[in-house]
What we know:
Radius of gyration: 24 Å
Strand content: 5-15%
Distance between the termini: 56 Å
Bound molecules: iron/sulfur cluster
Number of domains: 2
Largest sheet: 4 strands, mixed
Mean pLDDT: 93
Order of helices and strands: HHHHHHHHHHHHEEEEHEEEHH
Helix content: 40-55%
Structural class: alpha+beta
Number of strands: 7
CATH architecture of the largest domain: Orthogonal Bundle
CATH superfamily of the largest domain: Hypothetical protein, domain 2
Amino acid sequence: xxxxxxxxxxxxxxxxxxxxxxxxxxxxxxxxxxxxxxxxxxxxxxxxxxxxxxxxxxxxxxxxxxxxxxxxxxxxxxxxxxxxxxxxxxxxxxxxxxxxxxxxxxxxxxxxxxxxxxxxxxxxxxxxxxxxxxxxxxxxxxxxxxxxxxxxxxxxxxxxxxxxxxxxxxxxxxxxxxxxxxxxxxxxxxxxxxxxxxxxxxxxxxxxxxxxxxxxxxxxxxxxxxxxxxxxxxxxxxxxxxxxxxxxxxxxxxxxxxxxxxxxxxxxxxxxxxxxxxxxxxxxxxxxxxxxxxxxxxxxxxxxxxxxxxxxxxxxxxxxxxxxxxxxxxxxxxxxxxxxxxxxxxxxxxxxxx
Length: 354
Ligand code: SF4
């Protein structure tokens, strides 16, 4: 089939999905906090949090974030430490840093942009997020094409375009833009996402018997559901080895330092670490070179952490040390809890064996 062919089974038009989807959505939509508002700021926060994070996890983060920072202006002026703390555990901290930059842009202009060209100028907002905000908050016929939507559309049209490419996503967006209802654009966007999340699911068999598009779905009629969407094979994750130090002082404080301002977890606090796997002898040597004399080894263990494209294999050593070198930040348990946003990869090392 041609990649720009978005017809349904028996050559029916894509527009035929609109009514059954909206009806199904009205009856079946999950009750989620961001579905009770059309405030663009709140929709934006929810959409950014939902990238890479499960709905159930996002709910409490969303409520807490908006209780602390209820307006764009509050976000624009929040201290970074507070911002990172509110995001702690969601990962991909660049998302919230970009949000703060964009909030600054919005606060400066005095209004929340409501056209595609304007909204795309905001830091960290791409076509997907822009479409979600414009349709849900401003009732504009702008699609938001994420993985859920791509799965539904490629299946109902049995379209074998490469779903990982920008050009294909653009084609899907263009096909959808043509069929948006005159009002209720947000519900149409949400209905496509919801169907992909709860019925035409990513893992395992889709629940076709409960699907409002059952009769229209081309892949189902052809019995070729598993063929769609067409995606290139996943890239192998790169593995990085590192040695991480848990340095505990006599005052029950833990040594931290800050990551560089580029790359993975940029600018975040971390447990001191070096590339490669050191032996206990090598680790003791590192301590000595960093000004710690007579550190006492407490335990060593291995742990891994998986990011989107990288897998960390961590050799961890815990030492009792004296608080001598000044380039480290010495954090109490309370500060680790309430002040520093230690990324999960390191946090779980502190919790190891508890
Ligand atoms: S009929 Fe099945 S494959 Fe087709 S859209 Fe519905 S759930 Fe997905």
